[in-house]
Write a structure and sequence with these properties.
By secondary structure, the protein is an alpha+beta fold. The chain has a single domain, classed as Alpha-Beta Plaits (2-Layer Sandwich). It contains three helices and four strands; from the N terminus they run E-H-E-E-H-H-E. Helix 1 runs antiparallel to helix 3. The longest helix has 21 residues. It starts with a strand and ends in a 10-residue tail after the last strand. GO terms for molecular function: monooxygenase activity. This is Quinol monooxygenase. Its EC number is 1.-.-.-. It holds the Pfam family ABM.
Length: about 100
Amino acid sequence: MFGLVVRFTCKDEASAAAFDQLVAETIEKIRAEEPGTLVYASHLVEGQPLQRIFYELYRDRAAFDTHEEQEHTRRFLGARDELLASVEVDWLSLQTGKGTAG
């Protein structure tokens, strides 16, 4: 499995609302069109109204590469920058755990 965690900080409340709408549109396409994307979850951060954390888990690196090539992903990546103050990415290698993805 291949995964990452991304922390997005939006510029302001209006940007956060627009970002959330962009995320909702993108996730619908991911659900429908990406069988190799096992988990793609957007989280609100308690006490931090401008932050969002994504947890993404892919079957393998090839599934992630396929995700990155999709039109909906390219649209998201192009549109998000004007809404964000910062982006932090942590790449993950599974050490051990329990889950339903497999």
